[in-house]
Specification:
CATH class: Alpha Beta
Distance between the termini: 65 Å
Order of helices and strands: HEHHHHEHH
Oligomer: single chain
CATH superfamily: Skp domain
Structural class: mainly alpha
Largest sheet: 2 strands, parallel
CATH architecture: 2-Layer Sandwich
């Protein structure tokens, strides 16, 4: 009896193995760079960040110009001024240099305001992109959807679901 069971299991394995090995896996891809370029919310977020960056850049340039002016004044008047004046100006220059460094860290450093704002804006958008990709995958029966902008060397155009994802993103945006 056990010999017949073993033979049946082996026979079923031999017969069913080719069928399970040829099961269709449906894979699609999206061009995330195209989504970033064409999805209006990405463009709006990038515009907001550019405006903020320009403000920070102008403020930084003003601080550097003030430092340059102070340094030039100091150099031109250093030899003809009192020791107290020199110490005061050196202290002022040092303080301004420190303020510039602190400003850079607070605004554009790895934990700065611009980085946090970018992360915040992108987080919301990437959540929507993920929802759209999930919906397209489920609706169209895809097992996997890859980001073609990252490492895809070739993809059949029929498996490109970027247009579908953009369409879903616009629908999600209209609902909000």
């Amino acid at each position: 009896m056990t010999r017949k069971m073993i033979m049946l299991v082996v026979l079923l394995g031999v017969v069913l193995l080719p069928f399970s090995a040829t099961a269709q896996v449906k894979i699609g891809f999206v061009a995330s760079e195209r989504i970033r370029a064409e999805y209006e919310e990405f463009r709006d977020a990038e515009s907001q960040l550019q405006v903020e960056f320009r403000k920070v850049q102008i403020e930084y340039q003003n601080m550097v110009a003030k430092l340059d002016s102070l340094s030039q004044d100091f150099e031109t008047q250093r030899l003809m001024s009192s020791p107290e004046w020199r110490r005061e100006k050196e202290k002022e220059i040092t303080q301004l240099q420190q303020n510039i460094q602190i400003y850079q860290q607070q605004k554009v450093g790895p934990e700065g305001e611009l980085y946090r704002k970018q992360t915040e804006l992108e987080s919301v958008i990437l959540t929507r992109v993920k929802q759209a990709v999930d919906k397209v995958a489920i609706d169209k029966g895809y097992d996997y959807i890859l980001d073609g902008s990252v490492s895809l060397l070739y993809g059949k155009p029929t498996h490109d679901v970027t247009d579908d994802v953009l369409h879903e993103l616009r629908k999600i945006g209209a609902e909000d």
